[in-house]
TrEMBL record:
It is an enzyme of class 3 (hydrolase). SUPFAM superfamilies: Six-hairpin glycosidases. Residues 680-693 have a biased composition (Pro residues). This is Mannosyl-oligosaccharide glucosidase. Residues 21-35 have a biased composition (Polar residues). One of its GO terms (molecular function) is Glc3Man9GlcNAc2 oligosaccharide glucosidase activity. Keywords: Endoplasmic reticulum, Glycoprotein, Glycosidase, Hydrolase, Membrane, Signal-anchor, Transmembrane, Transmembrane helix. Residues 1-51, 677-697 are annotated as: Disordered. The chain crosses the membrane at residues 77-95. The lineage of its organism: Eukaryota, Metazoa, Spiralia, Lophotrochozoa, Platyhelminthes. It comes from Macrostomum lignano.
Length: 858
């Protein structure tokens, strides 16, 4: 294979930034552009502080020879002493090095993703997919280095083209998967002003042995414009649709295009990679109106620069439309773009065919296009409908709620991505920042526009839904996540793998410190999956997974049980709180997942966090179950920890406040803390006053005291949410009473995160950070509440009736509100406002909010 020549970096100009891009994105992009002309740098490992100093001792020794004989003896003596000290340093350096290297060393256990487990040969069904959830529509295959396909479009209105490509909230589009089974097919509706665009795809993985075929069909329509009205027609909007293929350098393959119509219309792409073998792509446009075709073949240095590359190669034409400039005549071309410009309605079919599937395709009646495509699509849709009805249907009350369930599930599955790259990780202990080993992640994502990457604690919740629809996909996702564990048992919290993922993350959130944990929700997903994995007739893959799962989870568990332990036995403390962040009213606890949920105002080692204790109890319970299932000798150890952590005497001793009659965190706390703007510094004569006033900082009006941290909210519910409390417990009765109290957490839309009686309710944490977990309704916590209430409703005891009633009331409240907001806005939202129920912040948020689908039925 010839080596690729990086393209001319001059192509990427600052003024080519997309209009809607945020400052951060622009900064990130510019930084990356600056690096764009070189090959990918090798993973860097750099230590802050320290540095080699051995040479200096050596020089000192030789220096002695050049001195006078009398002083030479003395100097040699000193030099000898230095040598000993140097040796001590060396030993320390080596041990530190060894400790440092643990940061990026995988745990030495068999991996859960089998060797080549995602290859076309071993896993053809999941090989190709819409695994670029960050795009409105894009496909890739599950390989570290994949051929990439994607859609772009823009309105031809004589202005600078506003190209749609990555999902951006600022585009203000509606887009949603109407159907997606995570494997075979999908159909998405996009609404961009008067354009209605449908993106459909169908796969045929068994055509040949290289991952098979797929076809994408893009259909466009006008809505709200009367196309038969001649006058209207004149002004009718014109749409350009572009579909591209990019072969990143790392694939070491090649692409070539074939055009017709005086070289303007791209008809076919042919190519080859080691993994895909020979393949070809056919473009089949269909339109009855006037149409203009253009294309582009050029070189794009990286996958996060596709749009910039395309924008740089556009030009106006005499008919007033903007189109691509054709062949760029670069020595190496790895990006091919098809463009058609017309007035909707029109259609484009893009078919990817593996040459290895020639005979299979003939036997199957030819290419996946036209009628064949429609037939295959309907076949998969019918199966999907049946599966939905079977798995969720019994339960769903009416057509509208079944539409909701279908949409929530489809968008969860359509949000699954495949990522590859290295996290940037940091060890505060050894002061090391380094690249993690390059790794793959198959994972759902919280939000296609805002968080299109893997988040550790979100993923446990995602898989509560995915696991009920397709346990095999869920198993595969869990396997990928747990394989990211290092030798210390740590898994980085936020996974920013690859250029596309990185481009969406502000710099300050990129580095992942290895001291920080995140709620171990994967245990919840495993607990739910366990009956499937241990069923009669479970396959070899399931058995092997289960066998390898236990030691891995035990390592993960041990990481939590040691590094997140509190000062006293059986207590726990989230790490990563920083009291030096003086602009924060309450130092954040990002690792808990509940970011700004109020904790002790003064972080100390004495602090103990109730939610973490309960997560650990749950993890112990699940470990005991798996250990028992696989006949592990030490499962009783976990069972003992579960019993000791859940014991009411234990919970009461460390977390129950008699005075407030609730469970709380414990720590050094003052209720009288506020943000205040400091006096501006005294100016020297002639010195101009500062442009902006100094930022507000934290002031403590009453000195903190050790004690329970008041403020009733989600954390206080955890002994119930994680089912620690015995069904007969009076504490459970008290929690149920408080939970149902509208003055505390109960609202008509679900449980709010913090009681209005808390001093922190709906308070900003800094001047610029609005409240996050300080009142708003979150669906993951509400889902846990409903299922915990159902659990207590199933246990004999004095609270059985109350739990049953509350479970049903809460289920209805949450489900109805999430569905109502979905109905009126077209989206699931990150959170819901507690006074109005309105969806707010990030959207679409088809991560854990989609758990509402599991609340459709009583
Ligand atoms: C599947 O269900 C959807 C929604 O109810 C319906 O519109 C569609 O026609 C069904 N498709 C098939 C093939 O049954
Ligand atoms: C967890 O840590 C505690 C010490 O805080 C220990 O007593 C317990 O045995 C540990 N549990 C397991 C299962 O390792």
């Amino acid at each position: 294979q010839e080596l690729r020549n990086p393209s001319d970096p001059g192509e990427y100009k600052q003024d080519k930034m997309p209009k809607g891009a945020s400052q951060n994105q622009i900064r990130n992009r510019l930084k990356q552009n600056a690096n764009a002309d070189g090959p990918r740098p090798p993973p860097q490992r750099f230590r802050r502080g320290g540095g080699g100093s051995g040479n200096r001792w050596w020089n000192a020794y030789h220096l002695a020879d050049r001195l006078t004989p009398s002083s030479a003896t003395l100097t040699k003596l000193f030099a000898g002493l230095f040598a000993v000290i140097a040796l001590i340093f060396l030993v320390r350096f080596v041990t530190l090095k060894a400790r440092t290297a643990r940061l990026w060393t995988p745990v030495p256990l068999p991996t859960l993703v089998p060797q080549n487990g995602t290859s076309a040969e071993l896993s053809p069904d999941l090989f190709w997919g819409t695994y670029r959830p960050q795009l409105y529509f894009g496909l890739k295959h599950r390989s570290p280095h994949s051929l990439l396909a994607g859609l772009m479009w823009f309105r031809q209105d004589g202005l600078e083209p506003q190209i749609r490509h990555w999902c951006e909230q600022s585009d203000r589009l509606r887009y949603s998967w109407d159907a997606h089974d995570g494997r075979n097919f999908g159909s998405q509706s996009i609404r961009d002003e008067e354009f209605a665009i449908t993106t459909e795809f169908v796969k045929r993985p068994k055509m040949g042995g290289k991952g098979g075929d797929w076809t994408a069909r893009i259909s466009t329509k006008l809505v709200g414009v009367n196309a038969s009205d001649a006058k209207q027609r004149q002004r009718s909007p014109i749409l350009s649709v572009m579909f591209y293929f990019l072969l990143p350098d790392s694939t070491l393959g090649h692409l070539r295009g074939q055009t017709v119509d005086e070289q303007f219309r791209l008809e076919r792409i042919q190519g080859h990679t080691k993994e895909l073998g020979e393949f070809q792509v056919n473009f089949r446009p269909r339109t009855s109106g006037p149409v203009r075709y253009t294309h582009l073949s050029t070189y794009a240095p990286r996958e996060d620069l596709i749009k910039e590359t395309v924008m740089h190669r556009m030009t106006g034409s005499p008919d007033g439309t903007i189109g691509l400039t054709g062949r760029s005549n670069m020595k190496i071309e790895n990006l091919f773009v098809f463009q058609m410009t017309s007035m909707p309605e029109f259609q484009l079919e893009v078919s990817f065919e593996s040459v290895s599937g020639l005979s299979d395709r003939q036997a199957a009646g030819g290419s996946l296009q036209g009628e064949t495509f429609s037939r295959e699509f309907s076949r998969h849709e019918a199966a999907f409908n049946r599966s939905l009805a079977q798995k969720f249907g019994a339960t769903v009350a009416n057509e509208k709620s079944s539409g909701f369930v279908r949409s929530a599930l489809s968008n969860m599955l359509g949000g699954i991505g495949y990522f590859y790259g290295s996290s940037i990780v940091n060890s505060p202990e050894t002061e090391t920042t380094a690249a993690y080993w390059p790794a793959a992640l198959f994972s759902a994502t919280p939000s296609r526009s805002f968080f299109p990457r893997g988040f550790l604690w979100d993923e446990g919740f995602h898989n509560l839904l995915i696991g009920q629809f397709d346990p095999e996909i869920s198993r595969d996702i869990l396997a990928h996540w747990l394989d990211l564990m290092n030798v210390n048992g740590w898994i980085p919290r936020e996974q920013i793998l690859g250029f596309e993922a990185k481009a969406k993350v502000p710099d300050e959130f990129v580095v992942q410190p290895d001291t920080n944990a995140n709620p171990p929700t994967l245990f919840l997903a495993v607990e739910q999956l366990l009956p499937y994995l241990t069923r009669d007739g479970a396959g070899k893959a399931d058995k092997e997974f289960l066998r390898r799962l236990y030691p891995r989870l035990a390592t993960w568990y041990a990481f939590f049980n040691t590094t997140q332990a509190g000062l006293l036995p059986g207590t726990y403390r989230w790490r990563g709180r920083d009291s030096n962040k003086v602009h924060q009213l309450n130092p954040l606890t990002l690792s808990s997942g509940l970011d700004d949920y109020p904790r002790a105002s003064h972080p100390t080692d004495e602090e103990r966090h109730l939610d973490l204790l309960c997560w650990m109890a749950m993890a112990s319970r699940v470990m005991a179950q798996i250990g028992f299932a696989v006949d592990a000798p030490d499962w009783r150890k976990f069972s003992a920890t579960w019993e000791s952590l859940r014991a009411e005497s234990h919970l009461d001793k460390y977390h129950w406040s008699e005075q407030l009659a609730s469970y709380y965190d414990y720590g050094l706390h003052s209720e009288r803390v506020r943000l205040e703007r400091p006096q501006p510094p005294k100016l020297k004569p002639g010195q101009p006053p500062p442009q902006t006033p100094p930022k507000k900082i934290r002031r403590v009006d009453v000195e903190p005291r050790l004690g329970h941290v008041p403020g009733f909210g989600y954390v206080s519910l955890f002994p119930m949410l994680m089912r620690l409390l015995q069904p007969g417990s009076p504490r459970l009765g008290k929690i149920l009473t408080d939970l149902a109290d509208p003055k505390l957490l109960w609202t008509a839309y679900g449980l709010r995160s913090l009681s209005p009686q808390s001093s922190m309710y709906n308070r900003h944490n800094t001047e610029d950070d609005p409240p996050y977990w300080r009142g708003a309704i979150w669906i993951n916590a509400n889902y846990l509440a409903v299922t915990a209430l159902r659990h207590y409703a199933s246990q004999p005891g004095p609270h059985r009736e109350t739990a049953a009633q509350l479970a049903e009331r809460l289920r209805t409240a949450v489900f109805n509100n999430v569905m109502k907001e979905w109905d009126s806005t077209g989206f699931l939202w990150e959170q819901y406002e507690d006074r109005t129920g309105r969806g707010q912040r990030t959207h679409p948020f088809c991560g854990w909010t989609a758990l509402a689908a599991l609340l459709a039925a009583a």
